[in-house]
Design a protein that fits this description.
Layout (H helix, E strand, L loop, with lengths): L2 E2 L7 H11 L8 H14 L3 E5 L2 H11 L7 E4 L6 H8 L3 E4 L11 H9 L8 E3 L10 H10 L3 E5 L7 E3 L5 E3 L8 E5 L12 E5 L2 H10 L4 E2 L15 E2 L10 H12 L1 H19 L6 E2 L12 E4 L3 H10 L2 E2 L11 H4 L9 H9 E4 L7 H15 L2
Parallel strand pairs: 1-15, 3-4, 3-5, 5-6, 6-9
Antiparallel strand pairs: 2-10, 7-8, 9-10, 11-12, 13-14, 14-16
Helix pairs in contact: 1-8, 2-8, 3-4, 3-7, 9-13
Length: 383
């Protein structure tokens, strides 16, 4: 198989948990989902967590719960997976991209400020920052901007469970804790920190938002007696909103629980791998990296920047090292060009894209495999 850029790590404990659930009474809508939600909320420090079928569903439901509609205009970054911005379009809203900081690849908060201050009051209803590669956006600073302009914040932390930054008081603000974000979303795709096959989670500290999320993920239907307009019996349910079937299964939740129990160890290993890459490339010419000095970086990705990105990509493949590019700027996708975006609109993002390459980064990457990757990168750069 070679060495991929990312890989799930499944142990016997994960297999045993799934088999136990397969032999239990519930395969979906059972107790494992609530258990997973409780444990995940505790892990990130949020009051509420709602598990859903995937990260895209989490983004979509988060947008709906925050009231996105045809009158909404939302700011986000072009360096992300398309789902971050698509979620707003699903609700009929509009997306406006803001360029990234060339050192971090994260949305540039100064440019967000300029965008908001140069617009008519009420133009924007929300902001979606992305904790790209596992580095946390300073949501404390973003909250001040958002509050000044009447915006909500939906933090896309799909790359960053276990990530954090130090706030102005020196306190660790965990991705998903929600002291500064209204909603935070996570993904449990196999290459992410927590692998459920597919899956997602939404965290919030708002009881109102939490209740909306719960009903929206299940067709907008409820059986809660306190919400029913009438009650014909134990079988009775009512549809109160136009919701979706975005449920996760107990099988996936069981896997998520065991994966979560190993998350702290996994993040520590990712940080160790990143440190070794940093040391290996620190004095090598013709290569640089995104800022990695942040102690709270969760390292979903380790991104290097080189002038001959395609050459390095192809060279590594000849040695069965399967690097990847994260991401093609969303505004340059044909669909978004059809909405009026064009080359040259966001120069930092476009320059970043022309040089970026994600090297293998996952907890089961061995020291020997990583050294092989390092040696091949340096060999190519020395040609």
């Amino acid at each position: 198989m070679g060495i991929p850029y990312g890989r799930q790590q499944i142990g016997q404990d994960d297999i045993d948990a799934v088999v136990e659930t397969l032999q239990a009474d519930f395969l979906t809508q059972g107790p494992k989902i609530a258990e997973f939600e409780k444990l995940f909320a505790e892990y990130v420090g949020a009051k509420y967590a709602v598990a859903v079928s995937n990260g895209t569903a989490a983004l979509h439901l988060g947008a709906l719960a925050l009231g996105v509609n045809e009158g909404s205009k939302v700011i986000t970054t072009p360096i992300t997976f398309a789902a971050s911005s698509n979620s707003i379009l699903y609700c009929g809203g509009q997306i406006d991209f803001v360029d990234v900081n060339s050192q971090t690849g994260l949305i540039d908060l100064e440019q967000v400020k300029l965008k908001l201050e140069s617009s008519e009051p009420g133009t924007y209803s929300g902001i979606i920052p992305v904790d790209f590669a596992g580095k946390a956006v300073i949501t404390e600073e973003l909250r001040n901007l958002a509050d000044a302009h009447g915006c909500w914040i939906m933090e896309d932390a799909c790359h960053a469970p276990g990530g954090y930054y130090l706030d102005s008081n020196g306190r660790k603000e965990r991705c998903g804790e929600g002291n500064y974000s209204d909603v935070t979303v996570f993904s449990f795709h196999p290459v992410k920190h927590i692998a459920c096959g597919e899956g997602g989670m939404i965290t919030t500290n708002s009881e109102e938002v939490f209740k909306k999320l719960e009903i929206l993920r299940t067709h907008g239907i409820t059986k809660r007696p306190d919400l029913l307009t009438q009650n014909d019996g134990g079988w009775y349910y009512e549809m109160h909103d136009l919701g979706y079937n975005y449920r996760i299964t107990d099988i996936q939740a069981a896997l998520g629980i065991t994966q979560l129990s190993k998350q702290q160890e996994g993040v520590a290993r990712r940080r160790a791998i990143a440190k070794r890459y940093d040391e290996a490339f620190g004095n090598v010419a013709n290569i640089s990296t995104l800022a990695t000095e942040d102690e709270g970086h969760a390292f979903h990705l380790y991104v290097v920047l080189v002038d001959d990105r395609k050459g390095l990509y192809e060279f590594l493949r000849t040695h069965e090292i399967y690097s990847q590019v994260h991401y093609i700027p969303v505004h340059l996708q044909p669909y978004y060009k059809g909405l009026g975006w064009k080359n040259g609109d966001l120069p930092n993002a476009e320059h970043y894209y022309s040089r970026c390459l994600s090297l293998p980064m996952y907890p089961s990457l061995t020291d020997q495999e990583q050294q092989f990757v390092i040696d091949r990168v340096i060999e190519f750069l020395g040609k």
